[in-house]
Write a structure and sequence with these properties.
With about 400 residues, the chain is of the alpha+beta class. About 20% of the residues lie in helices and about 35% in strands. It has two domains: about 1-25 and about 100-170, no CATH class; about 195-385, no CATH class.
Length: about 400
C-alpha cells in the first residue's frame, strides 16, 4: 500500500501595528474589562470542578534501576502482544521509504498561498492599501508587505508553507492449515495362480527347434537330421534357447550328446568342449601319413590329432552348465500395483543362448543333444494388497 500524502498549508498572519494604541495599552484595557474574579477561584469551587483522580499502578512501576534493561529485552524478544506491537513499530519506523514532495504537491501549496495573499490584500482595500510580496516560486517561506498610508497602518504578514506526508501501515495475520505427507508401506502377498512345476517349465523354456520333453518336465532333447556320402567332412548343427521371466532357472545343463565320429561344442560362438582334446582350437580335417604309399583323413583340434575320420557312434557326457549365460529377467510379478487384484503375466525373456554342435565324420545318422533342468516356475501371479494407509 502506498503512503497517503496530505498537504497542509498554514497561513500565519502576524499583525504588528505601528501606530495608534500600543500592545501594552490594549492588553491593560482588556484585563480591566474582565472585572473581579475572587468569587470564582474559591477552594470549594476548585474541589467541585477538579475531581480527585488516582493513577493506576502499571507493571513498570515495580521495576528497579537494574530491572529496566532486562524488562526491555524481554519485551523485544518475547511472544506477547506487546512484543509483537513493538517489533511491528520498529519495522515500520526503520522501513519507511524516503519521501520527497513532488512538484505537483508544491504547486498545490503555491495555489493555496496565492489565494491567501488575495485575502490579506483585501484587508486593506478599503483604506487604499497595497501589498507587495517577495514570495516567488516553490520555496519554503516568504513575506507579504501590506500598507495603508491613509490610516498610518503598516503590517507585515509572514507566510509559511508546510507539506506533511502521512504513512499508514496495516498488518494482517492468517493461520494456514498444516499439511503433512504420510508415507506408509502396504504388505503385498503374492500367490501363484497359474501352472507350476514341469508343466510351467515347458512353457517358460523356449527352443528354436522342435524338442521332446519327459513327463516330469525336467529333461528335454532334440535330434538333428543325418547326412554324409562317405567323405570325411565337418558338419555343424545349431539350437537357440531362452527363458521367459515367469521362470527362475537354477540349472540348465547340456548333459550328454550322441553322434558319429568326433564332436565339439560351442556356446555363443566360443569352443567349450572338444572330444579328446583341451583348449579352444577349432576342429579341422587333414590328411595323415600312415606309411609307404598310405594317407588317411584325420580329425585334428588345431595341431592335435584326435582320431582318423570315421562314422563310429559315440555318446559322451560333456555336462556344460548354461544357466549363467541367460541373464534372466527377475522372476515373478512385473505389473503395476495400482489396481488390485494385481496379476502378473509374462512380459520379457532372457537373452538367447546359442549352442552349436560340430561333428567330423564320414557319415552320420543324426546327432542328439539332451538337456537337464532345475528351477521354479509359475505362469501367473496374483497379489493381495494389505490394508490401506
Amino acid at each position: 500500500m502506498g503512503p497517503m500524502r496530505c498537504l497542509a498549508v498554514i497561513l500565519l498572519l502576524i499583525a504588528t501595528p505601528l501606530s495608534a494604541q500600543s500592545v501594552q495599552d490594549r492588553a491593560s484595557a482588556q484585563i480591566d474589562a474582565l472585572g473581579p474574579i475572587p468569587q470564582t477561584l474559591t477552594q470549594g469551587a476548585l474541589e467541585e470542578v477538579v475531581l480527585p483522580f488516582e493513577t493506576a499502578t502499571p507493571f513498570e512501576a515495580s521495576l528497579g534501576d537494574g530491572d529496566l534493561g532486562d524488562a526491555i529485552i524481554a519485551t523485544r524478544a518475547g511472544d506477547s502482544t506487546a512484543s509483537q506491537a513493538f517489533r511491528a513499530t520498529v519495522d515500520s519506523a526503520t522501513g519507511r521509504p524516503d519521501v520527497a514532495p513532488s512538484n505537483g504537491a508544491l504547486g498545490l501549496a503555491n495555489l493555496a498561498v496565492s489565494i491567501g495573499a488575495d485575502s490579506v490584500a483585501g484587508m486593506f482595500s478599503g483604506d487604499s492599501g497595497s501589498c507587495t510580496s517577495d514570495f516567488d516560486g516553490p520555496i519554503a517561506s516568504g513575506t507579504y508587505n501590506c500598507s495603508a498610508p491613509l490610516t498610518q497602518d503598516f503590517r507585515y504578514c509572514r507566510e509559511e508553507r508546510q507539506v506533511t506526508v502521512h504513512r499508514t501501515d496495516r498488518w494482517s495475520c492468517s493461520e494456514e492449515t498444516p499439511e503433512y505427507r504420510k508415507t506408509c508401506a502396504r504388505n503385498i502377498e503374492w500367490r501363484c495362480t497359474g501352472t507350476t512345476g514341469g508343466a510351467c517349465l515347458k512353457e517358460a523354456v523356449l527352443f528354436s527347434r522342435p524338442v521332446s520333453w519327459n513327463a516330469s518336465g525336467d529333461r528335454v532333447e532334440t535330434t538333428f537330421s543325418g547326412g554324409g556320402t562317405g567323405a570325411c567332412s565337418l558338419r555343424e548343427k545349431t539350437i537357440q534357447i531362452s527363458v521367459q521371466d515367469f521362470a527362475e532357472i537354477t540349472s540348465l545343463r547340456l548333459e550328454d550328446i550322441a553322434y558319429q565320429g568326433v564332436a565339439q561344442l560351442r556356446v555363443n560362438g566360443q569352443n567349450i568342449w572338444t572330444q579328446g582334446a583341451s583348449g579352444g582350437s577349432n576342429l579341422t580335417v587333414k590328411s595323415r601319413d600312415c606309411g609307404k604309399n598310405c594317407a588317411v583323413d584325420a580329425v585334428y583340434a588345431g595341431n592335435t590329432w584326435i582320431e582318423d575320420c570315421s562314422a563310429t557312434p559315440n555318446t559322451r557326457t560333456p555336462s556344460i552348465e548354461l544357466e549363467p549365460e541367460f541373464a534372466q529377467a527377475a522372476p515373478g510379478p512385473n505389473t503395476s500395483l495400482e489396481n488390485p487384484p494385481v496379476r502378473a503375466l509374462t512380459g520379457s525373456q532372457s537373452l538367447p543362448v546359442q549352442v552349436t554342435l560340430i561333428t567330423a565324420n564320414t557319415q552320420e545318422t543324426g546327432p542328439t543333444l539332451r538337456f537337464a533342468l532345475r528351477g521354479s516356475c509359475c505362469s501367473e501371479f496374483t497379489a493381495s494388497l494389505g490394508d490401506a494407509c
